[in-house]
Each structure stands twice: as C-alpha cells, then as structure tokens.
Design a protein that fits this description.
The protein has 297 residues and is α+β, with helices and mostly antiparallel strands. The chain contains ten helices and ten strands. 36% of the residues lie in helices and 26% in strands.
C-alpha cells in the first residue's frame, strides 16, 4: 500500500459541511422541482436572497453551476442533473431519520411508516445467510439456482426456479415488471389476470409519499448496481382483489442482481409469505394478522 494514501488531508484542504447544509440542499431540490424562483421561495417560506445564497454556496462547494438562467428562466445544468438524485435521497433520509422512520439495525437498513390512513409499512434488512435457516426452501432454491447460473436469466439453473420470481428492469428511472412467475407470491395473491396485465408496468407507489418511496427504492437500486444479494423482512398492508379492504401481509423477500441476454441489468425478487419474520416494532400479534390461509409453504 502506498504510504501516502494512509495520510489524511491537511485540515485546511478538507471541505467542512456548513451549518445550513440541510437548508442549502432543500433550496436546491425545491428550485429543481419548480424551476421558478418565486414558486420555490413560496414553498420554502423563505426569501429570494436566501435561496440564491444557498444555491451559490452549494455551487461553490460542488465546483460548478447547478442551474442555467436565461431570461429569468431556470433549467438544471449537467452538474445539477447529476447530483439531484443524491440530493433527493439525502432529503428523504434526513426527514425519515428525524421522524424515526428510517435508520440502521446492526448496520442494515430499517424503514417504518404509519399508521396513516390505514397504511403501515415496516422493512428490516437481514444478513443473507438467514436464507438458509428460513422455515421454507423457496428462497434457498432460487439463491442456489442464481449462483449456479452466474446470475444469467437464460441459464438453465435459473430457469428452473424463475417460476417463483418477479423480474424487473429500470426504464426511464422507474422499475418495470418484465416477468411474473407462475408460482410467485404476486400471482397467488393478485391472480393470473392482474399478473399478466402487470407486465410492462412500473412497480406501484409505496405509502408515505415520494420521499419515503425513495428510501424503499434504495434496496432495488443497491441490487441493480451491485448485482449482489439482499434479504428483507416486511410487514405491511396491501389490497386483495376479492376483498374491499387492505389485508395485512408478512413476508420475507430476497432480491438478486441478474442479467438479461443482452447483459443489461435485471432485478430478481422472490417473496415468501410467512410468519417467520423479525422486524423491530412489529409484534408476533401484528405478524399473525395475516390470515393463515395466505401462508406459503
């Protein structure tokens, strides 16, 4: 290892986070959403001078202009477009953390929303080796097929277990269904007609608004980029086509990075409805509110 690489940069060369960093990012995201200074000022309950100062300070830190202004009309610069997703994630994380709706347990992601208008959503990430101690074998079989097939969707080993899986790809920023397995939790819950109609459509919006939705999407983005493995336990409520109400559902979900034949990234999601989950804040009584008839072997 290069000895110099272990030496920290001098204090004078480090960028110190300004005290108003949150407000600066908030001004940037709001102006990026509205592309109108007057509207941004109104939404922020601020002043034009303050918003301009926040943007100027952020541009100084990031080393370039975030907006292009022509005839008082704002448009994002290339740098602005590049850093906007990260800025939105920071805002979402900050808001959720402040409300106690996001955090880490043993270094892994934890999310919670609700109850609000009948909606609840709990998600806790677990170590992947828990797949092998699961009370069911579906996740383990998919993991083994994925490993033997090297993540290639068309490999024979993976084709054998694709019937349990949903497969997604990202198009124009949205996750889109490309396949719903015949023995998947999704199909058995919603039925074949809805499952078939889902192909080509984007993954539905999660409760909690856009900010919380961005936190939920972190799991998918992580797998898409790393092409690795992730295990989550989830408790929420979702509609059942044959009922006129939201139904509690508890499940373990494993996601795997994969490749389509053209080597573009895919996301495999395999879900097993079960009482065998562990989530902070979710009691055994809550877990078992899912009717026993919906359990998967």
């Amino acid at each position: 290892m290069n000895k110099e690489s272990t030496i920290a940069a001098p204090e004078s060369q480090r960028v110190k986070a300004p005290a108003l960093l949150y407000e600066m990012i908030r001004s940037f995201v709001t102006l990026a959403d509205t592309l109108n200074l007057s509207q941004a000022v109104k939404q922020l309950d601020s002043t034009r001078q303050t918003v301009r100062r926040h943007i100027a300070h952020l541009e100084e830190i990031k080393g370039g202009e975030l907006f292009e202004v022509k005839d008082r009309r704002y448009s994002l610069s290339l740098l602005g477009v590049t850093i906007l997703p990260e800025a939105r994630d920071l805002m979402a994380n900050a808001s959720a953390w402040l409300l106690g709706n996001a955090g880490q347990i043993n270094g892994l992601q934890y999310l919670m929303h609700g109850p609000s208008e009948g909606h609840i959503f709990y998600q806790q990430q677990h170590q992947v080796d828990r797949v092998f101690s699961s009370s069911g074998k579906i996740l383990q079989e998919v993991l083994e097929g994925w490993a033997r097939g090297g993540g290639q969707l068309q490999h024979e080993a993976l084709r054998e277990v694709r019937r349990y899986c949903n497969i997604f790809r990202r198009m124009n920023g949205d996750l889109v269904f490309t396949e719903v397995g015949d023995d998947s939790s999704f199909l058995s819950w919603f039925g074949a007609d809805i499952a078939e109609s889902t192909i080509g459509r984007r993954l539905g919006q999660m409760p909690g608004g856009e900010g919380f939705g961005r936190l939920v999407d972190i799991a998918y983005a992580e797998i898409e980029m790393s092409q690795a493995i992730r295990l989550d336990h989830i408790h929420t409520v979702i509609p059942k086509p044959d009922l006129q109400e939201l139904v509690p559902i508890s499940y373990e979900r494993m996601m795997l990075g994969a490749r389509f034949p053209d080597q573009s990234p895919a996301i495999i999601s395999v879900v097993r409805r079960t009482y065998d989950i562990e989530i902070k804040g979710v009691t055994a009584e809550m877990i078992k509110r899912m009717p026993e008839e919906y359990l998967m072997s």
